[in-house]
Design brief:
Layout: H1 5-20, H2 24-32, H3 37-52, H4 54-65, H5 74-89, H6 94-107, H7 114-133, H8 140-147, H9 151-161, H10 163-172, E1 180-183, E2 194-195, E3 202-204, H11 210-214, E4 218-220, H12 223-230, E5 239-242, H13 249-254, E6 260-265, H14 268-281, E7 286-290, E8 303-309, H15 332-345, E9 346-356, H16 365-371, E10 374-376, E11 394-395, H17 398-401, E12 407-412
Parallel strand pairs: 5-6, 5-8, 6-7, 8-9
Antiparallel strand pairs: 1-3, 1-4, 2-3, 9-12, 10-12, 11-12
Helix pairs in contact: 1-2, 1-3, 1-5, 3-5, 4-5, 4-7, 5-6, 5-7, 6-7, 8-9, 8-10, 9-10, 15-16
């Protein structure tokens, strides 16, 4: 027998991420292009789940397999991780998880490692689920091992939210994220989906309609992200500067009302992709500028509003970006610099919308406090999403709101 196409795609993705430092959201589409819809969904669930849970899985493999994971051949390491994920965290049949993982080792040309992989996988089948369920979670370090996060992430959430909510966040971001698209108001056409009762334009869908996406009728965008765009409160006829525009969700969202949007992207390839997105969505009023937001041309100023959807550690989107937890780095200095640029480029009395897809006070409220700009409260319009300790801000939570985690602040410059 040989491994199923879905498991082969998951296996290849896991190897590319951990052995070649590839990004999961780019590696997976490349290896899954030939799969049908059902196989693709299974492959993504297995690949992303394994990548998310790799710290816990490696602990179990070493405890039960009695061999350091770092010393294994890369294909064996990937096969054991993939098989272990299925055995500990999925409802896949035990024999399928074991047998197909062994075949992945065999198909990799490592016949000498087949018996070893088979023996370890059978030990995992007998004991991994029980081992994982018995791991303690009473401290940040214990919880980080059990739920597969870096220690610093657990410690950050313990500090900012307390133990119970930190654990809830960890559990929530190990589950598949919502599938939501934004209905593009710039194009007419029939689009399926269940309208969200709180976020205008948001549609809940079982899967993204690739045809509607290609036609520019929709854009995949979480409710948390769409809320940030709505909080910009863009009015008809306004000029908008988006300092960190790619991939384009918020730039094209505010383009539905603005007269002009200047969208900044420093990476040439991403700038070209952003231009293509704007063309597809019919956002002809968006001008893409390939430039560093910290070194803008002098003539880009006096905007009615500036969007700062800043680069960040991404701790609110770990469910949809499985490898990010192993790469994440807080960026408060860059965020403060971007807010300074926004204050310089917005017209007197204008508004800056600061949003970050992270759950970390050092990148959220502390960055805003350091800006010394006047805060315009958002909680009266969006009370459900009010920040728990600073209600003038909004904070969406994966555990509470079942969407990506976003911190959102509206800031007024002096007149």
């Amino acid at each position: 027998m040989s491994a199923s196409p879905a498991r082969r795609a998951a296996f290849d993705t896991i190897q590319r991420v951990f052995e070649q430092d590839a990004y999961a959201d780019r590696a997976f589409p490349a290896v899954a292009a030939v799969l049908d819809v059902r196989e693709r969904a299974l492959a993504q669930r297995l690949a992303y789940g394994t990548i998310q849970r790799v710290r816990t899985l490696d602990h179990g493999i070493e405890a039960l397999g009695r061999r350091p994971v770092r010393k294994l051949d890369p294909p064996v390491r990937a096969a054991l991780r993939l098989g272990g994920y299925q055995l500990a965290f999925s409802e896949v049949a035990m024999h399928a998880a074991v047998n197909e993982s062994v075949e992945l080792v065999r198909d990799s040309g490592l016949e000498r490692a087949v018996s070893f992989a088979n023996a370890v996988l059978r030990r995992l089948a007998l004991g991994l689920r029980e081992l994982v369920s018995g791991l303690p979670e009473g401290t940040p370090v214990e919880a980080a091992l059990r739920h597969s996060y870096p220690d610093w992430v657990a410690e950050t959430w313990w500090r900012d939210f307390g133990p119970d909510e930190a654990l809830a966040l960890m559990r929530a971001q190990n589950e598949p994220p919502e599938t939501v698209v934004r209905r593009n108001a710039l194009k007419a056409g029939a689009v399926g989906g269940e309208p969200d009762p709180e976020i205008p334009g948001a549609l809940r869908v079982e899967r993204v309609d690739e045809q509607a996406l290609a036609e520019g009728l929709i854009w995949p965008q979480s409710r948390g992200s769409q809320l940030a765009g709505l909080c910009a409160r863009v009015q008809e006829g306004e000029r908008i500067l988006d300092l960190c525009a790619a991939p384009g969700g918020k730039a094209t969202q505010v383009a539905e009302r603005a007269a002009e949007v200047v969208a900044i992207e420093r990476h040439p390839g991403r700038a070209r992709e952003l231009e293509e997105t704007c063309r597809r969505l019919g956002a002809a009023n968006v001008q893409v500028v390939n430039a560093d937001a910290l070194e803008l041309p002098d003539d880009l100023r006096d905007f009615d509003r500036v969007l700062v959807d800043a680069p960040c550690s991404g701790l609110g989107v770990l469910a949809s970006r499985p490898d990010l937890r192993w790469r994440a780095t807080p960026l408060p200095e860059l965020q403060r610099d971007l807010l300074r640029v926004a204050a310089e480029r917005v017209k007197p009395g204008g508004t800056t919308l600061y949003s970050v897809c992270t759950l970390n006070a050092e990148e959220n409220e502390e960055v805003v406090d350091a800006s010394l700009l006047e805060v315009e409260p958002l909680n009266r319009e969006w009370p459900r999403f009010a920040h728990p300790t600073r209600p003038e801000f909004l904070l969406t939570r994966p555990d509470r709101d079942r969407t990506s985690g976003f911190f959102i602040a509206s800031l007024r410059s002096p007149p």
